[in-house]
TrEMBL record:
Origin: domain of life: Bacteria
The protein's name: DUF1330 domain-containing protein
Domain DUF1330: 2-93
Listed InterPro entries: Dimeric_a/b-barrel (IPR011008), DUF1330 (IPR010753)
Provenance organism: Vibrio europaeus
Length: 97
């Protein structure tokens, strides 16, 4: 069953984010079957309050694959780097179908 990672990010250091974080994180994401479905800053909130920033929706083959990406030993140094470059709100969930 497919699973998704939904992240709202507010990038503080765009240069390092593009150069140091994204290429390395993307390689690990692909290793776990992750595929970006949407990346946008254009959100039309109709109800409630949503976090500010860029929205990233990534699909994985399963919730286990999403968790394996997030917990991958190769990703741990990138999580530390990411914390220095941006603020994020993130959730992992399965499709429910």
């Amino acid at each position: 069953m497919p699973a998704y990672m939904l992240t709202f990010v507010r990038v503080h250091d765009h240069e390092s984010h593009q150069k140091d974080y994204l290429p390395n994180a993307h390689a690990i994401l692909q290793k776990h079957g992750g595929k970006a479905l949407a990346v946008t800053e254009e959100i039309d909130v109709r109800e409630g309050v949503m976090p500010q920033g860029r929205v990233i929706l990534v699909e994985f083959p399963s919730k286990q694959a999403a968790e394996a990406f997030y917990n991958d030993p190769d990703y741990q140094p990138l999580k530390k780097l990411r914390s220095a470059l941006l603020d994020a709100d993130m959730a992992i969930f399965d499709s429910g179908f």
